[in-house]
Amino acid sequence: MARPTPTVPSAATQRLTLFDLPLDVITLEGTLDRLGEWMFRAPRSPHTVVTLNPEFIVQAQGRPDYAAAVQAADLVTADGVGIVWAARQLHRREVPRAPGYDLVRGLMARHGPELRVFFLGAKPGVAERAAQNAVRDYGIQVAGVHHGYFDLPEDQRVAELVGASGAHLVLTAMGGGRQETFNQYWRQVLNAPVLIGCGGVIDVLAGTADLAPAWTRRLGVEFLWRVGLDRKRWNRAPRLAQFVRLVRAEQRRR
Known about the structure:
The chain is an alpha/beta fold. It has helices at residues 28-40, 54-60, 64-71, 81-91, 100-111, 126-138, 155-163, 178-185, 187-190, 201-206, 214-219, 222-229, 237-253; strands at residues 14-18, 21-25, 48-52, 75-78, 116-121, 141-146, 169-173, 194-197.
């Protein structure tokens, strides 16, 4: 993928840099306002949104295509407490969190029946269940559904399917790296005002994954809760330790 020109956020948002990746200083409410404007009040054009967590930063270190997709995003929010901590250590700034699940839930609650959502990702059948639950809980319109288990040669077909759906919001849940590069590379074909790489949000909406307890989300430590309870996530713990080492090394360098 050619390296895109990084998007310049509006003057109302300050953009920091963590390990060559952007981070916008914006609250959850401010993010919901911005996305709502893109979906319903601004001229229709695609915008990519990344919810940044420590694992993303570690993965992007060895993947130029991943790093370029994040750098080109229209909005990059702080997903986890690790990002908040890193911004405090390296920039002496308090950065509000705007996690992916809270963004998705907030958009559906705010816009309800006027919102057309395409559910893209997770295992076959899961996106359908997530869509059904979202209609029940928020009254949204389902623009379409498609699982996330397709290979690169099928990307264009899937992107064109999404682009023909008339969605305002595309939830791309194919795992860190894959979802961001897909959204960025195919953004013009996807042709939706807001494209969010949302990880496990579709699984949570479908009920096939548990939402972390409210207290862990308030403290921003839901990642640690998930790692502790889910063996499938244990291999991610070393990335968190690597992230801490990256931050400490950058502090010493400065």
